[in-house]
Amino acid sequence: MSDDRPYAVLDIDATLSDTSKRIHFVEKKPKDWDSFFEHAKEDAVLEEGLAVATTLAADHVIVYLTGRPERLRRDTEKWLKDNGFPEGKVYMRGNTDRRPSMLMKLGRLKRLAEQRPVAVLVDDDAKVVAAAQKAGYTVMRADWGLDPETQPALFEAQESEGRT
């Protein structure tokens, strides 16, 4: 039996994981990216994100698309498994890739769509969401994580520094 379910693509930081305890590392100058990423494995689960992922897994092939650098693969995959997230392939940013998240993620969505339909992208980043919608993808804005109005450092970093 072939699996013809479409993809559901989920971001991780501030969509599935609560980054609020480590955001202070990138609110200062210079930003301490090593510490920000080193502590990712300690993130709490955003219950809304887990519920969305679990619901989508019933009818979709799950893909995790994160701006985290590749060097965090082992910790990221362990975190997903230990916290009960559905199985899925994890796509990460190359360790030296500093493109804005919008460009990095849209490029991956396009490649995924060549394999099977992408039914939905779930992401917290307004620029990623807007660009994906403009490109014709269905999106769900993960508005249950960080608030871009009160926590602008992460959102700025995603776009201008190509870091998460």
From TrEMBL:
<dbReference type="Pfam" id="PF25109">
    <property type="entry name" value="HAD_PNKP"/>
</dbReference>
<feature type="domain" description="Polynucleotide kinase PNKP phosphatase">
    <location>
        <begin position="9"/>
        <end position="143"/>
    </location>
</feature>
<protein>
    <submittedName>
        <fullName>Putative acid phosphatase of HAD superfamily subfamily IIIB</fullName>
    </submittedName>
</protein>
<dbReference type="InterPro" id="IPR036412">
    <property type="entry name" value="HAD-like_sf"/>
</dbReference>
<dbReference type="InterPro" id="IPR056782">
    <property type="entry name" value="HAD_PNKP"/>
</dbReference>
<dbReference type="InterPro" id="IPR023214">
    <property type="entry name" value="HAD_sf"/>
</dbReference>
